[in-house]
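The records we work with from here on pair a chain with its fold. The integers have meaning only within a learned vocabulary of local backbone shapes. A complete example follows; check for yourself that the lines match position by position.

:::
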Amino acid sequence: MTARRSDPVATDPGEAGDATDRRRAGYRQLAKAVLYREYLIFVRYPANAIGGIVVSLFFFGLLFYGGRMLAGRALTDSIEGIVVGYFLWTLSVGAYSAISNDIGSEVQWGTLERHVMTPFGFAPVAFLKGVAKVIRTFVTSAIILAVMLVLTGTTLELNVLTVVPVTVLSIASVLGLGFAAGGITVLYKRVGNWLNLLQFGFIVLISAPAFDLGWTKYLPLAQGSALLQRAMIDGTRLWEFPAADLAVLVGVAVGYVALGYLVFEYATRRARRLGVLGDY
């Protein structure tokens, strides 16, 4: 009786373990890898991270001290709103540039094809990388907020159960805009100057509640800015907001993320058809 020779791949415990890991690989492993990559970039290049914080505080210092010299008491009376607005603006810029700037760098480095060739697909990888950068931006913006409170001597209501959900939903719409900008970057490559203009438009969107125009709440950041002001200045809790206001906040967040995803998918597919996906 002749014994059947076993498959060495099946009997090799090391290779069998690798095969098992490949079978188990999923979006959770992808998310962990992307978050760990962002953590490594943060800790291995601390000068760049600290530089971003210093630059943000420098511009806030110009806004605060320069404005106090010119406006005096008028600025002091509205300083809480300025601090909250600037905090939301730093988060918004980070969320917006998280995808668009990262994809622009990948295009220049010639590593964009690696994302396209992954079994997860280009869009999920780009989106998770954007979420990871937003988490990092939360950390740096929290430091900026703490320093701003010390510099201005201002106190705010920082209820985590209210501030975090409202802030996340507020910048989700901006993340959708960044997704769309990333798709345009893949298609047209060097469009950074045009895309960066939108960052200054965020100031208008954050200030939109002051104009008391009903239709502005359907724009990115506007509704989130209004609710965040009430939460951090007036101390309003999440469950105290009207259900209609929260519904608008959630709807705007989901709507702009979905719209950004569709634009990204269309732009990347068109880039493939035109054969310019990896060109620069």
Summary: Residues 124 and 144 are 30 Å apart (CA to CA). The two ends are 64 Å apart (CA to CA).
